[in-house]
Each structure stands twice: as structure tokens, then as C-alpha cells.
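REQUEST FORM: STRUCTURE PREDICTION
Request ID: SP-0412
Submitted by: Lab K.M.
Chain count: 1
Length (residues): 230
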Amino acid sequence: MTEKHAVRQFVRDNALTLAFGTAFLLALTGQALVGHAEFNQSLVVDELEPISLGAYLASSDFAVDVTENWQSEYLQFFLYIFGTVWLLQRGSPESKQMHRAGPESDKDQRIGRHAAADSPAWARAGGWRQLVFSRSLGLVMASIFILSWLAQSIAGTAAYNEQRLRQLQAPISWASYLHSADFWSRTLQNWQSEFLAVASMAILSVYLRQRGSPESKPVGAPHHATGIEG
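STATUS: Completed
RESULT:
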């Protein structure tokens, strides 16, 4: 296999991750540039000196704007991954079939003595390794959510106190910021949109189709067909 062919193979095999990873970097760059311009505009209004792009990227204002979006996205993933173990939606490809609610049997999940030769090593193992691996996706999503939310609260405290100092007000503690309207406004405005998106996807995919997408049922599948993908 030539190097060129190997690169082409790699891109094809990882096209979904590469496409959305590139889109993420482009969007983050755009957010940084626009946020920098907006931040400097507010400094000029307050009769302060504008800052460089590098200084803005290291600022609490940029950090809180980024992390508040990250934590809501990973909260969505975490809740969706764990919620769909038990919660069902008749007719949706986003749901398991109606009789399969719950963690399912070892045979269904191909773990322990039911694992195949090419199954991951920790799926074949028993004890704590199988327990952790069986829930590893949700645990990682939950961990990223908690860390992002923590980062948002810390950066948010610094950004909020910076605004208070400009207004000649005393800064507040991190604990006080966690009880502030600013923290919960930033948090809840993201959460509500994520919950709406999941609910919309679950119910709209019952009646609507997207040919060729694994997020949709086959075009000719009946509306009541549950847990099948196109």
C-alpha cells in the first residue's frame, strides 16, 4: 500500500471525526476573532485600552464562553447515553426496541463468556474491568461535563469579578458566584437548547426520514418501527 493510498484510506475511515473536528476548529477560530472584537469594543466604551488577540485567548471571558458550551454539550451526551438505557420512544431509531429496556443480558451485550475472539479484552474480563468498560462511554462523558462545568464556574467567577471591578464594585467569591444569576443564566440557557434538540430528534425521527443516514430509519420503514437504522 502506497503512502498516498494509506492517507486516503485513513481519511475515508475517519471522515466523520475529521470533518466535524475541522468544523469545530474553524468555529472556535471564528468565535475567538469575533469575541476579541466585541471584547475590545466594550473596553473602548469603558475608556480602557484594547487588548491583543493573544491576551483575549488567555482571558477569563474567552474561557467562560467556550466552557459553558462544552459542558452543556457533554451533559446532553451523558444524559442521552444513560437515559436511553431505560427510556424508550416508540418508532424512533434513537431508541432501543420496546422490549429491550435496561442494561440487557451478558449474551445480548457479548461480554464475559459470551464475548467473541475479536471483542475488547475488558469485555472478556470479569470483575471491575468489565464493570468499568461496560459504562466507560457514559463515565467519560460525565467526567468531561463535570470538568467543563467546573472550568466554566472558575472562569465565570473571574470574568464576573472583572466586570464588577470596572463598575467599582467589590469582587465576590467562587461559592457566591455559584449562587449568582449570571452563573445559572449562562448554564440554563445552554441546557434548555440541548434538551430541546434531543427531544426533537427523538420524536421527529419517528415520522421523518433522511435517506442513507444511520440517524434515520429506512425511508420505507413504518412509523411504528423502533430501534432500526437506515
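NOTES: The longest helix spans residues 15-45.
Reviewed by: T.R.
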